[in-house]
Amino acid sequence: MWLVLALLLQQPKHLAVYAAASLSDAFNEMADSLQRRDPDLHIDFNFAGSQVLVLQLGQGAAADVFASADDRWMQTARDSGLIDGTPQTFARNRLVVIVPKGNPARIGKLQDLARSGVKLVLAADAVPAGRYAREAIFRLAWSAGYPPDYSRRVLANVVSYEENVRSVAAKVQLGEADAGFVYVSDVTPAVARQVRRFDLPDTADVIASYPIALVRHSTNTEAAKTFIDFVLSPSGQAVLTKNRFLPGR
To answer: The domain 93-204: what is its CATH number?
Structure first.
């Protein structure tokens, strides 16, 4: 009996974390730190657009933690009874525009996104990054130096709507698009070597909020809370800052 109990206690702890695609680098780095502290802890990530993750949770996916790239999809998860407790905002992010290093469309300023023939890629409207991008485009249209029909002309140049923001970055990085809206955190050192970045003016700056919460019916609530606490801790926040996120508080 005691041998069986000992074996059960020594079994690995599996934690399933469903997180927005833009968090992949930061969360994998945090997982390495946590697993060094506790070798029996195994963290399995599912990175995707927040809208896809909520759909999966609603279909009964076995998850312990949900981290969204906006409050909208976290609220949808709460309204659907998928979340336990109150979500906490742990990070924020900003949008930038990237173009391939070779810049075949000769984009030299954000106004050029409205030029006919430019191939623009955005995340789909259901994706937080896609909604943020549209908001930024509409704000630019109201900014000094931009034509009043700027948003219409820019959106007419969209050739692809992606299911998550990392797909947008990949298409631009590979030269399959002339430009794309992504988060600052998506311009990793590897990506930065292959793209050119344009920051948005203050008048069009859109701040993304990232909430995290325990999933209801989690089968490993202790490990889930440990992960959430680490994300919110100074150590976790340092990892997020290193990965170009803004503080959540």
So the answer is: 3.40.190.10
